[in-house]
Design a protein that fits this description.
The protein is of the alpha/beta class and 178 residues long. It has four helices and seven strands, in the order H-E-E-H-E-E-H-E-H-E-E. It has helices spanning 2-23, 64-79, 112-123, 146-151; strands at 32-35, 61-63, 84-87, 102-105, 127-130, 162-166, 171-174. The strands form two sheets. The chain has a four-stranded parallel β-sheet with strand order 3-1-4-5, with helices on both faces. A three-stranded antiparallel β-sheet has the order 2-6-7. The chain starts with a helix and ends with a strand.
Length: 178
């Protein structure tokens, strides 16, 4: 333990010496954003078609699009060291994306007004990267083909995968029952 204490003392001294530089530091502005899913959550892990999310399942299961969102963030921010902003649907409204060049979209449910604002941003020069199944429904889980029409890419509806977190074994398994 004394060796650890000495090492910690030395590390804390270095941090203390650098504090005037660290305190005034500014985060590098990000030109890349990942949209954090929000409108899709009520429609996941439902017991029956069209039924809302059961509250007891909110922390037991993760959606595939949620895992994709985190994977994109992990790959770009952690592994490639790019500054990434995680944004919410409100940021998609007019003017909210002006500082971004690229937006990643994974969630299947996106409010119509958010999707239209996002596509207008793309028309002005932004780059949208959408995963399979993104923006296939509006916030009410009604099928939407707006993204298909805008990109001229038509994809068939894809079943969502709900992944059960098993923190004791460190594995994630696909949920087969409704």
């Amino acid at each position: 333990w004394p060796d650890i204490a000495r090492s910690l003392h030395h590390a804390h001294g270095l941090i203390g010496t650098a504090e005037p530089i660290l305190f005034t530091a500014q985060r590098v502005p990000s030109e890349i954003a990942v949209l954090a899913p929000r409108s899709s959550f009520p429609w996941d892990v439902a017991g029956a078609e069209g039924e809302f999310q059961k509250w007891e399942n909110l922390t037991s299961f993760k959606s595939d699009f949620e895992a994709e969102c985190y994977g994109i963030y992990l790959a770009l921010a952690v592994h490639a060291n790019h500054p990434i902003d995680v944004i919410d649907e409100d940021t998609l409204m007019p003017g909210g994306l002006d500082n971004y060049k690229v937006v990643f979209l994974t969630e299947p449910n996106l409010p119509a007004e958010c999707l239209h604002a996002l596509l207008e941003w793309v028309r002005r020069g932004g780059t949208l990267v959408a995963t399979v199944g993104a923006a296939q429904f509006d916030r009410y889980n009604v099928s939407s083909r707006v993204l298909d029409a805008a990109t001229e890419v038509s994809e068939s509806l894809r079943q969502r995968l709900n992944l059960k977190d098993n923190f004791t074994t460190g594995t994630i398994t696909h949920r087969s029952e409704p």
